[in-house]
Each structure stands twice: as C-alpha cells, then as structure tokens.
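Blinded run. Sample ID left blank on purpose so nobody reads anything into the name before looking at the predicted structure. Input follows.
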Amino acid sequence: MTLEIVPLQPLERGYLRVLRIRAAIGWLVLWGVLTGVDGVLHARLGLPFGWVSGPVPALAVGSVVLLVPRRWRRWGYAFTDRELHVAQGWLVRTHTVVPVSRVQHIDVSQGPLERSAGVATLSLHTAGTEGSLVRLPGIRRERAEDIRDAIRSRIGDTPW
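Blinded prediction complete.
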C-alpha cells in the first residue's frame, strides 16, 4: 500500500481577519474584567491602578499581530473525490482524513464576521463518537457549497 501525499490548500485570507477580530474581542473582555479587578484591588489594598490590567494591551497586540497569523497559516485542507483532508495545529499538528462514505450529515454555516469576510465553515458529521464532527472553517462559501454538493451526490450513490 502506498501513501499518497495530498497537497493542502490554505484557508482564505479573509478568515485571518475573522480570527484577529475574535481574538481582539476576547482580549477586550479580559481587559474589562481585569480593569474591574484593578479597581477593587486599588480601593481595598491601595495597589496602583493598572497593576493587574496594565500588561493586557501589550499581550493583546502581540497575540493579534504575531500568534493569530501563525495559527491561521497552520490550517490546510484538500478535497478529493473520496475524502476530505483537514490539517491544523501549531504546537500539536492534527491531520484528519474523512472518507466521503462515512459522512452522515453536512452543514455550511456563516456567522456575521464570516459573512463580512466572505468565508464559511463546512461541518461534516460522521458515524462514531469521538471525532465524529470535523469542521473546516475559513473557506469561500461557494467552495464549501461545492464540497457539500459533491459529498451529497457521493452519499446518494452509496448503497445502504
């Protein structure tokens, strides 16, 4: 048996913007919470304001500018007629191969951020428990629909 190397395609550049906005929102929420903690510590213990929340903006900028693009670059996918490959991970690399014959349900979804960036998420539900949901975010909606339609036509061809 020979192992066939499948070249992976990167996610759409618009998804990088989505990831950056999500990370920025998360950092803003954390900053707000820590600013409240700073206020309590200042009032009760007399600690200087910003003792806890001060480093958050620098960490946020570092995360949004440096870490998010690294995470985005580590995603890749490929669709052949028989299977979908999804690779992800920066520290721990995961390469998932979903045979089309195992797919039971397919979703294409878009939130408001994804719609504004022109990307969608393709979700495949397979038989089994662990790993039965495989998500492929950050691809063009048209591409996600093409993959969905191709898988749906293949599922219809398989005898039950």
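Unblinding after everyone has recorded impressions. Strands lie at 76-79, 83-88, 94-99, 103-109, 119-126, 133-140.
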